[in-house]
Amino acid sequence: MKRFISILISLILCTTALFSQEYNDEDEYDDGYVYEQNGAGDQFLKIDLGANFALNFGSKLYVGAAASVGYYYFLSNNFAVGGDAILGYNLSIGKKPLVTVPITFGAVYQPYIGKFEFPFMLNVGFATVSCQQLMYFPALAVKASAGAYYRWSETWSFGLSAHAYWIPLWYTNTNYNDNGLFTSVDLSVRYHF
Amino acid sequence: MKRINKITTALFLPLIMLFSSCFDPIFYEVRRDVEPESATVSGNIGQITRFTMNGEEYLFLSADGGLRYKKADNETHGSWATMSVPFALSSFDFDNTAIGGRQIIGVYANKDTLYLVAAQYKTTSSEGTTNPTALELWGYSDQDEDGTYKWVHINKDSDINYFPIYYDSVKEIYKSNFNVFQTNAPQQANRKAYICSFVKNADETTVSYKYFELIGTDDPSQHPITISKVEDGTADSRVYSAVWFNGGVKFFNSSAATTDETLTNPAERIFYASGSYLYYSTLDEENNFVYKRSCTASDTISALAVTKDSILIGLGNITSTSSDSGGITRVLRDSEGKPLETTSDFTTNANFQITSIYKVLALINATPEKTEEESALYASITFSSYSGLYDNIGLWSYYPARGNWNRE
Questions:
Q1: What is the CATH number of the domain that holds A131?
Q2: Could you give the ipTM of this predicted complex?
Q3: Is residue A15 part of a domain?
Q4: What is the CA radius of gyration of chain B?
Q5: Which domain holds residue A159?
Q6: Is residue A10 situated within a structural domain?
Q7: What gap in Å lies between CA B56 and CA B85, rounded to an integer?
Q8: In total, how many domains does chain A have?
Q9: Do the Cβ atoms of A130 and B25 come within 8 Å?
Q10: Is residue A35 classed as helix, strand or coil in its secondary structure?
Q11: Which of B175, B134, B174, B176 is CA-nearest to residue B155?
């Protein structure tokens, strides 16, 4: 009796194979929809953390750290506008912390290949520069950025980004006029919504 | 309504930015920054005192490690020696929860004697507090004029307590209300030092100040003085500083007063500070000796040092324990030695090394006959803000050969 029940169960399980249908591409319904990772109205927030390099101070500034936050809004599938704020920190040779905070607004052009996205940004805004309780505010700030991201999911992408920003300081006494050129290389995460 | 809000915001945002604007030459200063030298003279240094010993000019001060000194014409970093003192320096005995020895809290000098004010403390194990118990006055001089200098505990057997300490039961702190001041003149013969002590009046709330001149290792009670004129106050004003000028001593309520005396020439002008204002002495049209106001500093002036072509101005309210601004600035002197009406930027890196996060406790020019760039200059600094570096607290110097300000 036990043997009969075992054989019966095996036969029942095999019936699904008997009635299964072969896969055929020609039978798939195509409505012409192409999936885009980003579209008009999409937005993202991003956070970057990395190293900050002073480019035109010789040995007077050590390699420091940078952190930034940003928000962008897509006008089309690969063009967005928004702004971000960077906090740059570099110690001087005399161990004095130089803090640069450019807050800039601009546009992003972002082509993508598969799940890889490559944003290029150009921003203009203002900056605060401070060191040893000396301060310059507001200063002009111009920033260019580029990055490479992997779209991990619909809502998250991770990657590397690099920012280069220019902060000129201008004075009535032109002897003090100077330019600060900095670049940061960052690990970056973006939240898409 | 939304449009009005946007327009208002658009108008006010630039205005806010304009009014909060600040344009310090930061990158310019960063490019002139220098690598800090090792800090060899650290701590809160209240005075940098000139003293002549065996015919040689020295600078003395109290710092970490005790009594420190160097020859005034020595312009090299790291050359401050330590002089032995006749008592153990203050230290904490963890095993017995007791504090031993004495802390040097002031170094002063007249023409022939170096003076130390040293404090003893006790620790209360029950409350974990350290309280002052006694203050001592020590003198170091060549009493026998045989080239051998000896220490003497001057107030050991005094009938007068020159440094009374009392407990403020309301604020629960120990207070003292004495001060010691000196002319600290470049020329040995013009150096004088004084104690300002006090006694409580019968009403127990007011005090009367009593002044004594320090002469040799005599008990100060032998040399009480009456100050009839305080240059920047009334006869009743308390005296915090003194200068040697025109053959005598002039007393000031200001804690920052000095002259343009050099190692060879007598003083032609007195400079003193009142709050953030700098004053200088001059003769008016009727040939009367008067004081005139020159420049205004950005904060309370705490110390002054005179060079041939400028006056260095130390900033910071040193009587305040609260966090406030400090820094250093300078004013140029004209061909008559008068300070100009506005301060000037430094040509050195002084402004970036001693910024407003540090109070200046003392300033001195070891070579007052020279211009600022040619002089050996010293400044002692302490915190005025939480953002200062502990390693920077202590003595800073400018040497012409080095060409910049750096830690001493």
A1: 2.40.160.20
A2: 0.82
A3: no
A4: 23
A5: 43-192
A6: no
A7: 20
A8: 1
A9: no
A10: coil
A11: B134
Domain chopping of chain B, boundaries: 25-77+254-408, 85-226
- What distance in Å separates residue B195's CA from the closest CA in chain A? 38
**A144 inside 8 A of chain B by CB:** no
Torsion from C-alpha of B335, B341, B345, B351, nearest 10 degrees: 110
Question: How many CB atoms are closer than 10 A to CB B18?
Answer: 9
Could you tell me how far CA B287 lies from the centroid of its own chain? Answer: 32
- At A43-79, the pLDDT tens digits run 999 999 999 999 999 999 999 999 999 999 999 999 9
Closest listed residue to residue B229, CA positions, set B214, B250, B210? B250
In a domain, A14, yes or no: no
What type of residue is A2?
K
Asked whether the beta carbons of residue A136 and residue B23 sit closer than 8 angstroms, the reply is yes
pLDDT tens readout for residues B269-295 = 999 999 999 999 999 999 999 999 999
Tokens 């020609």 belong to which residue? A26
Q: If you compute the radius of gyration of chain A from its CA atoms, what whole number of angstroms results?
A: 27
Residue A28 included in any domain: no
B366: number of Cβ within 10 Å: 24
Q: Which residues of B touch A56 (CB under 8 A)?
A: none
Structure tokens at A4: 């009969």
- Predicted TM-score (pTM) of the model is 0.85
